[in-house]
Design goal:
The complex is a heterodimer of chains A (281) and B (262).
Chain A (H helix, E strand, L loop, with lengths): L1 H20 L36 H8 L5 E3 L14 H12 L5 E8 L2 E8 L10 H17 L3 E7 L7 H20 L4 E9 L1 H4 L8 E4 L10 H8 L10 H6 L5 E2 L5 H11 L8
Parallel strand pairs in A: 3-4, 4-5, 5-6, 6-7
Antiparallel strand pairs in A: 1-2, 2-3
Helix pairs in contact in A: 4-5
Chain B lengths: L5 H8 L7 H8 L1 E5 L12 E8 L2 E8 L5 H6 L7 H16 L4 E7 L6 H5 L2 H14 L4 E10 H5 L6 E5 L3 E3 L3 H9 L5 H8 L3 H7 L4 E3 L10 H20 L3 H13 L2
Parallel strand pairs in B: 3-4, 4-5, 5-6, 5-7, 6-8
Antiparallel strand pairs in B: 1-2, 2-3
Helix pairs in contact in B: 4-6, 8-9
Classes of the chains: A alpha/beta (281), B alpha/beta (262).
Chain lengths: 281, 262
Amino acid sequence: MDNIFSAFTNRRRVLDALKNTHRSRVPAEPPCPSCGQSAAITALRLCSKCGHHYAISAALRLDKLLDDGGVALFEDIPSRDPLNFPAYGEKLAAAREKTGLGDAYCVREGAISGRRVIAAALEPEFMMGSMGTAVGEAVTRAIERAGALRLPLIIISASGGARMQEGMFSLMQMAKTSAALRAFSDSGGLFISILTNPTTGGVTASFASLGDVTLAEPGALIGFAGPRVIEQTIGAKLPAGFQSAQFQLAHGFVDAIVPRDQLRSALVRLLKLHPETAAAV
Amino acid sequence: MSAMTAHERVKAARAPDRPRVRAYIADLFDDFFETHGDRLAGDDAALLCGVATFEGRPVTVAGNVKGIDLDSNLAVNFGMAGPDGYRKLQRAARQAEKFRRPLVTFIDTPGASPTASAEERGQGEAIARCLFELSGLKTPIIAVLTGEGGSGGALALGLADRVIMLENSVYSVLSPEGFASILWKDASRAEEAAGVMKLTAEDLLAFGMADEIVREPPGGVAANRTALMRALRGVLRRTLDELCALDTQTLLAQRYEKYRKF
């Protein structure tokens, strides 16, 4: 036993030493799922060869989008377990550990090239970015704050849809967020909705589809029903590219497809085209 | 009240002899005139809209259409509406506002249609736009859950000032089959799913998502349709009176708060 153990630790030490000697080299990336090359991944999580869009965390997105990253809002919204759902508490704890977030969202107040905005992003690594009460509340507070301050609102969606573990409370978030957007829209607020991989289910069927301007990231899966459910329903395979960002553009549900490294400049242009409105009386 | 399990309620809600939307319209309203089409692309037989009178006052009526056997269900896609249906509802809702008619919806759907053609025509956007329209609609909205209410496809007709559930109706984030399939990768565990989802009228009333439960007559709604309709008529009359007495600003503020609290 002792011998096996020490042989193992020695082996680890040798491996670690080898790694250290090679640290100066560019680490070999696993092959890109789009171009198959072992190319470096950029700071915005794009393949440096073909531009493939890797998943990116909500926090990193907003860090890169906002001048100096902005200021975090609403970080303390508690996640709820209204159904007392088996093992949900453990799942939440694991997701918090993995992402460092309280739930599947980041909201910030900040500026894009000097223009103040409220920006929110959903976190795909936190239970697939699903919307339960905490995400719905964060999105609603973001909308209401943008309305109160008369600031443009930007929401970057990445979500599998309603969070099943919170049952009907998750469904109610669709009504809550949509109602908040209706009030925001009626007051003249600008909402730019950005659809990233994936945007499906109850998020597509609520706030994500209610943008004044809707942008999508290349290659993003965007739809209501997931591909597996559709294939089961129709008893056939879906063609390649079904529900892709390009598909949504072709069918009239997206204004433009914007690569991630051009998003900031696209937003600067759009914000310039929507000048600041007078402060609320 | 009998101690039925949640799964038994789901079965009762889906019973093929349960009254369908046209039965409610025939028994509760007069002068019904069905209005077809979304004025964009088509007319969805799975979601019906029209104008009628309820005890003399004009109302807009909308509801999911289910069949009673395989043939009639195939004709209405088993009550699963597509984007054309949800856009027809938006048109009916806007007219309800224009002509100052209350909107009464009848919900009985397993969910929105999950087909390739529904996706091509923007199923998600169509449902989202219903929520957007209904949340700001300047006229009273009453939703009645008559059978099963599943997912955003039901909520699109369910964002209302008052939500009334029949005793054996159910309302859930997804059908128990879909729920089991997503969470446990096993649709056959639907009975177990129904047990944990809290989807009965009692559950929804306790959550504040339903405002009132209409008791079903002993012996079942199919055999005692007259008694059911009499009870529902009374609830509709009282609810319409309450909501029509509110000024628009109060109505909309209360509706916002109703969903804001979740």
